[in-house]
């Protein structure tokens, strides 16, 4: 394939723009705040799960406290009824004696149940504090995530603007290159990590950084200006410039 020297030089401009686009895309994929945001999302997910479990435990403990208090109220009511019966003096001596024994048992039962209430109340208070702390931690992480997401969006927007501008320049440059030469360039770019054309600088290929041997250098020097050169080592298109040293 042959192409005018000016078109070959445009390949270098196109390669520079494509390399810049690749760099911008890589920078966008590897922005530090992306990893920071991912870490915060993981932490936030963990806090949400733990907070939900803690809140559910709060509800269970409140129900347990309500039941324990209802048990105490029930025993108190039974004791009050027995006390009223005992004070009324109605019934046989045996019945009154049984009421007295029952009141003693109910007093013990009430004391035990009140201990249970106090124990559950302590658990409720402790669990509520834990849940409040988790809620505060979650709120803090959510706030931090919002800040990081906002800063990330700003960085991405800046890179996107650079990419759109560079893509516009790229399209204009590509439009000036002959179709067959452009097709070869695109094919090689796909094959060789996005680098299809490189200048020869002081007899060295700038794509693979391997110096041309004597036969390659002589062949490049002797070739007509419109001949498309390919490097034997890396197979990229070699473009001759004023700095080639040939």
TrEMBL record:
Pfam families for the chain: CT398_CC, Zn_ribbon_9
Domain of life, per lineage: Bacteria
Span of domain CT398-like coiled coil hairpin: 14-192
Domain C4-type zinc ribbon residues, every copy: 204-238
InterPro entries: CT398_CC_hairpin, Oxidative_Scav/Glycosyltrans, Zf-RING_7
Protein name: C4-type zinc ribbon domain-containing protein
Organism from which the protein derives: Actinospica durhamensis
């Amino acid at each position: 394939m042959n192409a005018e020297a000016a078109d070959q030089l445009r390949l270098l401009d196109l390669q520079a723009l494509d390399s810049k686009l690749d760099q911008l895309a890589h920078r966008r994929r590897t922005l530090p705040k992306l990893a920071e945001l991912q870490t915060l999302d993981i932490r936030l997910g963990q806090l949400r799960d733990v907070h939900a479990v803690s809140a559910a435990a709060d509800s269970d403990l409140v129900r347990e406290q309500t039941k324990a208090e209802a048990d105490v109220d029930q025993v108190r009511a039974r004791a009050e009824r027995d006390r009223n019966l005992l004070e009324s003096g109605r019934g046989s001596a045996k019945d009154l004696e049984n009421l007295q024994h029952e009141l003693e048992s109910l007093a013990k039962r009430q004391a035990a149940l009140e201990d249970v209430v106090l124990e559950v109340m302590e658990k409720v208070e402790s669990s509520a504090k834990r849940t409040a702390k988790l809620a505060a931690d979650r709120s803090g992480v959510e706030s931090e995530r919002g800040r990081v997401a906002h800063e990330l969006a700003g960085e991405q927007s800046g890179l996107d603007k650079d990419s759109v501008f560079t893509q516009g320049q790229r399209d204009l440059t590509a439009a000036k290159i002959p179709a067959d030469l452009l097709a070869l360039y695109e094919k090689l770019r796909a094959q060789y990590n996005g680098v299809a054309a490189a200048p020869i600088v002081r007899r060295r290929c700038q794509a693979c950084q391997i110096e041309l041997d004597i036969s390659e250098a002589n062949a490049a020097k002797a070739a007509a200006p419109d001949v498309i050169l390919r490097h034997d080592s890396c197979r990229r298109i070699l473009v001759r410039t004023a700095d080639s040293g040939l």
